[in-house]
Amino acid sequence: MKHLSFKEFEKENIFGKGDLNEAYAKYFVGNSYLNPLTNPKETSVFLANVTFEPGCRNNWHIHHAKKGGGQILICTAGEGWYQEENKKPVSLHAGMVITIPPEIKHWHGAKKDSWFSHIAIEVPGESTSNEWCEPVSDEKYNKLEENENE
């Protein structure tokens, strides 16, 4: 369900918005918020609720790993997008699960007219790292929204 109003969105966002994601702001277009759900000092699996304001998306990026690794997204509220390089975009809504293998260039974020949240799970692995790439251009992002309404 699309939510342009944060007040309405907040009712569905059961894991909470969290704080402004300032540490990674340079890898996002728009504002994102981070609410850690696990403490990396207490478990090998890090989970966080990531909330995107309408139109916010992260840059293209790749989760590297020699073994294991990757990321899992559990969509919890609002509507968003997920896209792998050279593939069609996937429209996201609450209840969807996206499994992202290591070494796949991709991006994810909110739709232009909706707040969006997902739980991000970093899959443990050997020699894991994250490579941030170029932003998703406004031109390409806006075409996704235009094509969805056709």
From TrEMBL:
Q: Which SUPFAM superfamilies match?
A: RmlC-like cupins
Q: Which Pfam families match?
A: Cupin_2
Q: Which residues form the Cupin type-2 domain?
A: 50-113
Sorted alphabetically, which InterPro entries does this protein's record hold?
Cupin_2 (IPR013096), HNL-like_cupin (IPR047263), RmlC-like_jellyroll (IPR014710), RmlC_Cupin_sf (IPR011051)
- What's the domain of life for this entry? Bacteria
Q: Do you know which Gene3D superfamilies this protein is assigned to?
A: Jelly Rolls
Q: What PANTHER family does the database record attribute to this sequence? A: BLL4564 PROTEIN, RIBD C-TERMINAL DOMAIN CONTAINING PROTEIN
The protein depicted here goes by the name Cupin domain-containing protein
Question: What species was this sequence derived from?
Answer: Ructibacterium gallinarum
